[in-house]
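WARN retry 2 of 3 for item q-0093 after timeout on previous attempt; input resubmitted unchanged.
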Amino acid sequence: MLRSLVGSEMCIRDRFYDNPSAYGPSVDMAKIEEEFTKYAEPGTGCISLDRCFEMHDVVGVSGADIETLVFYFQYRCQVQGRVTNEEFVRGMVRSECETLEQLAAKLPALLGEVQNSDNLFKDFYGFCWQFARESETQKLLGVEEAIQTWELILEGRYAHLDWWFEFLRETAPKGITKDQWNLFLDFARQVQDDMSDYDEDGAWPCLIDDYVEWALPRLKNSSA
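OK item q-0093 returned
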């Protein structure tokens, strides 16, 4: 039964991307493929890092801002510095655009959607760990890479973000796992700023347990 359901879902998905106007957004798939061809390296089926920089110029992102992450979030890229044909086509269909110029015009609204929807932001947040890696096989995101990404996406969402960064730099873990990354967002959302409701017996990773132990004396000193 599960196999049947999965197969049915794949058929529906494939029909959607073959003929999206019949299921929702009205886009010309031929124009999207033409746009992809403008930037793809011949014979590779991918847009390389250098051509990604060219796309940045068209879309108006710096490569080091949250808008860049939202741009690549549309494609759900598996790793930075490369966009496959499938990722590009699905991203353009998802954003209901046929050209990068159209996507550039929509980017402010897409950023607003990400920032104002808890569910969409959670998806975006999870994507950022994946995208910040240098390879698809990488199981740990480097601490500095993680900090740089958190700075972009968590500004204003956690009161003690500077402490978190200080803790990570002091303790120097080998890297940040996907589980640690995802649960830190839950921690930032669920635990009060004074950490008085933190459950040390909860299902938090050891890294967050250690952070709370590290931060509590600072909280007491700051409130004294």
